[in-house]
Write a structure and sequence with these properties.
Blueprint: E1 3-7, H1 14-24, E2 28-31, H2 34-41, H3 55-64, E3 70-73, H4 77-89, E4 93-108, E5 111-125
Parallel strand pairs: 1-2, 1-3, 3-4
Antiparallel strand pairs: 4-5
Amino acid sequence: MKKLFLLFSHKLTPKQILDAKDNLGIEEFVELPQNLQALWSNIPPHLQNLNDYLLPLKYYIKENTKNGDIFLIQGDFGGCCEMVNFVKSLGFVAVHATTKRDSKEEIIDGKVVKTSHFEHVIFRRY
């Protein structure tokens, strides 16, 4: 059973779920345990190096994955770089979601209000 591990701070949209099933062959979506999700979603901006900080996540990946699993990795740029390199070093595929943005600006009560809507397009390999 091919799994998509979510190193991601949002919930997948129905369109993303369908795309993952249809185009990546995903049968199961794996959210991080709560403690690791908190770690991933709150990477401290003052750390010069993330290797030690991300060790619990790396250990979890080594212990809970099998050949053919895929990783959706989005978030802190440095954390993404570290984790993409890590999962690829283990022979896994890492992807990120691409989106189309539709923005609209209007003047409301004398102020410019900008609204953006994002729509999933594809998952792209790193």
